[in-house]
Amino acid sequence: EYCVIGAGPGGLQMAYFLEKAARDYLVFEKGYGAGTFYEKYPIHRKLISINKVFTGKTNKEFNFRHDWNSLISHDESLVIPKYSQDFFPPADTLVQYLNDFATKLNLKIQYNSTMHDVMKREDKLFQMWDQHDNVYTCKYVIIATGIAKPNDIKFPGSELTVGYEDLTTAIEPYEGKNVWILGRGNSAYETAQHILGVTNFIAMMAKGRNRLAWATHYVGDLRAVNNDLLDNYQLKSLDGLFEGLLFNLMIKKIDGRSLGDVTVLNLKRSNLTGRIYTLEPGSDRDTIPGGKHLKRFETDPTRRGFDHVIRCLGFKFDDSVFHPSIKLRKSGKLTSTGKYPYISPMYESLDVPHLFFAGTNTHSLDHRKSAGGFIHGYRYTVRTLHRILEWRNHGVQWPAVKFNNPLDLLPNILKRINEASDIYQMFSEICDVIIYDENKISSKYLAGFPCSLVSLLPVVSGHEVKGPVMVLVMEYGKNFSGVGKDVFSENRAAGDPREGHRASLLHPVLYFYKELFTPSDYVKKHRQWILPVPDTLVSLIEEFTTKFDAERTHVLMIRRFIEDSLGVDTRHWFADQCLKISLTTSNIPLGCQQ
What PANTHER family does the annotation carry (predicted)? Predict the structure, then answer.
């Protein structure tokens, strides 16, 4: 029934949920084992995903907040901290872990199977072949092949460059050499970090300024673990950055225009020095010593020439697994050349029904907003996809906990705020939803629900909505994150409970709607808002240890918010107080009714 292509972390996570639900599925993996992507990448073998072994807590869910490499399972031995105590583990550890995950959980995986020509037949079933021309038929296909195809941008002189994918860990070739790195993502800085101790100098070029993860709060931006080159640049130690050229070069490539007609960057090797220099397009002027110079080349960052030019231009989705009859658009402004497949918030192709995606290739939905492109994020989006499929294909409702009154609800909200990893890691993207009955007394608590699908709650979850809805979201401050933001300013953190609206760091926000908002309301919301403007809202102030349990600052704020939103009294009463109230008024509080 389900064909999953790819046995990386995303494919394994989906296989786990399908196995647990006793569904008919098979995972196809072209490699001889699980997670073969990580046998090669990252090239320099150190992960930048956090493995914080010591948190001061024994709660598994809380500790998962700081374990960015493990997948979800019932086996408590299958977590990366059992394999390594390194804060940034070696990639080989992840490979071992993924293979153990597949083996110990008895996941149905067929290795050494290179699938091709995935197509949809007239009877709406999918058909595909392996390299031995064995034919497979499936009702649903889930692509979990990751973003593994290097961006290989061609331009005159590109044959003189080497791609990140072709690098080795050897540093000897760079000793005493001038190195030019094209690109400014984590792979570029990882490469620079590995060789900067032996080079003459490193010049790094990209289309725009640095995106620092601590400023953008996006883990896919430049991480501090690899940014020693920035120190060297600002502390006058020869390495440096400059902008330009690459953006134009990429635009010409994206627009499909011939690089022979419009060239932005030419490279040429000098027979005299053996180094690589820039050449002005359509001219014999260049930066080669003794050549015909333009004035602008006199201060050009490339005028010294380079012994090595390295392309670190990122990766994109590889759609070569599909038959030509399946034409998939890509996400982004240019749908033919984007990085990710074009999908709906339900992780389904917008071009081919019943074709789904899992893992990092669903990151278009939260790119540069949350962690959906990384294991600690997509382990939850894969679970979300599975739950969507369970209701859609098998009539299994979204898991929910029922509460008979708001008094019992408050402890659960506090537990989720202080322990839950899904809403913590997939902040602003995955929410908790509370559905109240018409009387605003009993409720259902749906954990880990996609924020973008709340307006379609009955359709996606199988739960009716007849009363008000409350949504719990973890958010950063609306104007706190961004390139160039001063996230270390003295007034960065709010301290007064009444100033929760000024909270900057990650903090809980509760939205209350008297009735469920519509998909149209969601589309029309302000782009900075996670959800449409609610009837009432409370934003709790941040706490750098992320323990939102202060009696007045957090607990009392939530209780009063519930009371104000529902119009009920959630206080607890002693028996003698309840007796007195019952003798003097007909308005008996919930605490006494219990």
Answer: FAD-DEPENDENT OXIDOREDUCTASE DOMAIN-CONTAINING PROTEIN 2, FLAVIN-BINDING MONOOXYGENASE-LIKE PROTEIN (AFU_ORTHOLOGUE AFUA_4G09220)
